[in-house]
Amino acid sequence: MSYGIVCRxxxxxxxxxxxxxxxxxxxxxxxxxxxxxxxxxIQIPLSPEDDDCGICEVCITRLRDASDFKLQVQECQREFxxxxxxxxVKELKEEMSDDFDDFKNGDDNKKLVEMLGFxxxxxxxxxxxxx
Length: 131
Prior knowledge:
single chain; alpha+beta; two-stranded antiparallel sheet; two-stranded antiparallel ribbon; 4 strands; 37% helix; rod-shaped; zinc; ZAD domain-containing protein; Znf_AD
């Protein structure tokens, strides 16, 4: 990295690493240009002879955090969908309906009177004489 070149992600600090070089951190391979593309769909035009395609440690840390967060959310969504799809609604036992066909024709009072044996009883309304 030559002096005067800035990080391609923040344009503030000097780059510490190259965007197109593969690094191994804690057993995990990282190519920062690929991480930018996979995480944010950002394609930084890079050519092999470019000396100005670097990234600073601050931006590397932020990029790792963003990449890890994206992977976390994707994994959680997979797990959620597995649990959601595994959830099945138990089938309800279908029971016979209580069908009251005898009382559908609007003459409920007449049939009730017949059932109770009050054939000769007349129904009278009360008058309001309580005043």
